[in-house]
Amino acid sequence: MSEGLRERKKRQTRQHISDVATGLFLERGFDAVTIAEVAEAADVSVNTVYNYFEAKEDLFLDRSKSVVDRLSRFVRARGKGESASDAVFRELRELVEAVSPAIGLFEGYARFMEVVHGSHTLGSRLGFLQHEVLVDLDRTLREETGADEDDTLPTLVAGQLSWVHGTLMGRIAQRMLEGAEPGPASREALVLLDDMEAVLGEKVLKYAVRDA
Amino acid sequence: MSEGLRERKKRQTRQHISDVATGLFLERGFDAVTIAEVAEAADVSVNTVYNYFEAKEDLFLDRSKSVVDRLSRFVRARGKGESASDAVFRELRELVEAVSPAIGLFEGYARFMEVVHGSHTLGSRLGFLQHEVLVDLDRTLREETGADEDDTLPTLVAGQLSWVHGTLMGRIAQRMLEGAEPGPASREALVLLDDMEAVLGEKVLKYAVRDA
DNA sequence: TGAAAACTTGGAGTCATTGCAAACTTTAAG
DNA sequence: CTTAAAGTTTGCAATGACTCCAAGTTTTCA
């Protein structure tokens, strides 16, 4: 019994509600759409919406949550001889070169960010996600290196790498909002990555090299 | 006419409302206090509260807003031969050594952060302020250096320095929450500042040196 | 098949936030 | 000193997010 009917239905319902809501938000903006409208459009009750999502913002940022552990995944998957920083830069470059929608390199991203910036609540929530990336990576680095509880270095490295990620995403968002096409935005992003790597200190670049 | 009765009264009323609200929040937590209660305790109408503050969170974070342009002020006031980074580290060290409440080094800070962490809205807003520090500093660095519009370096330096500031504040908050006294927390913060400076790259450390 | 467990729903209630117009206060001109 | 204009405060009403609850429904499983 890998997954019962119940589980499947739940996931579908959740996805459906999120999709419908996202569509409405992109069309009319975040504040101009009420939960009641989302519920009606998704053909469920208002309470059901709240069964699946804690707050209105989660309806729009649901997908973005997979971003939180992105850097941790990169670091865990780093190759032999590769530092945490090496892995993060390498993987980010791959995403950028592939013009991946995972980092905002797709047509509709401009409108998405427009909606985000259009709402105080949503904008703040984004800053929160950013911080969660750091916390998540900090934990991962500590697990990977077995660093002492009161060693601050992993936190500092996590801060630097999540800054790289956040700055990259922010720049892409900005360029897309300015009307840039994914292709050119991708090329600019690669330069930015180079610049950021050039700005980091040795201690960060060489942290958590995988020996085995 | 430096300031009429009207202006003075407004400032007093605003301060009074903020003080009363802060008191209640510290006592009972953010969500457990309604605007109606704040209004009653401050002896004004609910609408007056909204005349002065955009949202409930602003009642609690009003003071924190002076933090946004802190780094910009440090940079603008940097001495001859001093880089932006030098100035920021120097001034932060001064605040830390002085055990200044401006960076959370006072008894009540633990409770303050407890309340902040206790509310989703409040926590997110803090991340937003953090980002504003960066944006503000970016603008200042561009003004100070006359950097070209599409030069990304000032943004990167601003990102690094606001990271230093945010990490410092975060660490102090964490230690105070863990029950540390301001004195010891101050000493630990100095070490952290050294660690962070050691982690930064040359490009950042030497940016925007004041020659004249 | 017959509950128990898990979902959905309608309805009522709390509270943040906004819009509006009446009532009040301060300012500044006469 | 009086008074109208401008700015401020307030009560009232309404919208919409979010929570609680109790009454159905559906799915699971012994």
UniProtKB/TrEMBL annotation, chains A, B:
| Name of the protein described by the UniProt record | TetR family transcriptional regulator
Residue range(s) of DNA binding per entry? 34-53
PANTHER family, per the entry:
HTH-TYPE TRANSCRIPTIONAL REGULATOR BETI, HTH-TYPE TRANSCRIPTIONAL REGULATOR RUTR
Q: Which InterPro entries match?
A: Homeodomain-like_sf (IPR009057), HTH-type_TetR-like_transc_reg (IPR050109), HTH_TetR (IPR001647)
Keywords, A to Z, come to: DNA-binding, Transcription, Transcription regulation
Domain of life, source organism: Bacteria
Q: Which residues form the HTH tetR-type domain?
A: 11-71
Q: In which organism is this protein found?
A: Streptomyces scopuliridis RB72
